[in-house]
Amino acid sequence: MKTRDRILQASLQLFNEQGERAVTTNHIAAHLGMSPGNLYYHFRNKQQIIAELVARYEAEVEGYLQVPQGRALTLQDKAHYLESINQGLWQYRFLLRDLEHLVSADPEMAERYRQFSRRCVQSGQAIYQGLVDAGFLCAKRANPEALALNSWLLMTSWVSFLCTTVLDGEQSELTPAMLRRGVYQVLSQELGLLTEQARPAIEALLAEYYLPLDGIGLS
Amino acid sequence: MKTRDRILQASLQLFNEQGERAVTTNHIAAHLGMSPGNLYYHFRNKQQIIAELVARYEAEVEGYLQVPQGRALTLQDKAHYLESINQGLWQYRFLLRDLEHLVSADPEMAERYRQFSRRCVQSGQAIYQGLVDAGFLCAKRANPEALALNSWLLMTSWVSFLCTTVLDGEQSELTPAMLRRGVYQVLSQELGLLTEQARPAIEALLAEYYLPLDGIGLS
């Protein structure tokens, strides 16, 4: 792996585990057994590392919010979307905890995020339209635009909700199970919209992401 | 009005109009034609004013998230919940823009907010259960717990979504219409869950909060 990529990977890990504010470029260099000078050769400062991680987050999310061309959406596609959301939430949890704040620190990043967020809502709309067209969701009741917007709001606010409302002295770290419940929340929007033929498979998928709220200290 | 209340009212107005970071205690005092010393007699610093506004926000939200005792929920109750959400979003928009950040600055405020947010999710669950019991939502499909959690996420993230994704150089201020669309998003969750007898009235209510996304520069 290139040094630049190793720095990004270690930074992401440390930010996720210890919180971005608690981690300095010196910590990152020490974690990699690297001199601070070597790190500075690749990144001028922590803000530049964060900007690069935000760019990777954006590229990954856009990568998975694609609608297959020339064929209908399948259950497998749907399961893949959900698992991608789950992994994205976990992998970039430090960022999602404080996204508005990190992004608003830099006007260029803020403008790029604005465009990214708009494209994601549009992609989400195409996906929900695909789910209607493929017979998963009832065409008469499902509103792809409203669903896409709500899904985007739910996905981007779940980690910070966990941090403000669920974490406390007793449970002070995010767990993968907590993030799975976020995916359940996105999918639960479809409960009233499923066609009869799609319902059994989607309810089985929902069960995979279910976690009772008292399991995350919220009940 | 008491001086203390005048200071809070003016602070809320200025924070909403100009952003919290751009407003100092000197600006607030000048706006009220008051000496800074007189303001400091009531509030030690800006943080204390913010803490008091957060407390008022919490008290108001909890005030409207009540389920009537001894009778079923009515359409009027439902309309009242929605209008309260709408007014709360508008009235405390500066706070909702950056809530996690403002709240996390003070451990005592963070702990109070955690308890408040948990109680709101519980109250939301009681309200959705009330809507099922009163025959608005289909008992077989509606999941009051998931709906309450999603509604809370949508309500608390809408303003910051608008700020990161909708506002830009051309449209740099929140408008009441933008916040109404947030209420539409909350209510739109029910589209697949309405009973046949409730549908016409709720669809009429939805139409009242509808605003096309290109009307807020997002399409």
TrEMBL record, chains A, B:
Coiled coil: none annotated. Gene3D superfamilies: Tetracycline Repressor, domain 2 (1.10.357.10). GO terms for molecular function: DNA-binding transcription factor activity; transcription cis-regulatory region binding. InterPro entries: Homeodomain-like_sf, HTH-type_TetR-like_transc_reg, HTH_TetR, TetR. Keywords: DNA-binding. It comes from the Bacteria. Residues 24-43 bind DNA. Residues 1-61 form the HTH tetR-type domain. This is DNA-binding transcriptional regulator, AcrR family. It comes from Halopseudomonas sabulinigri.
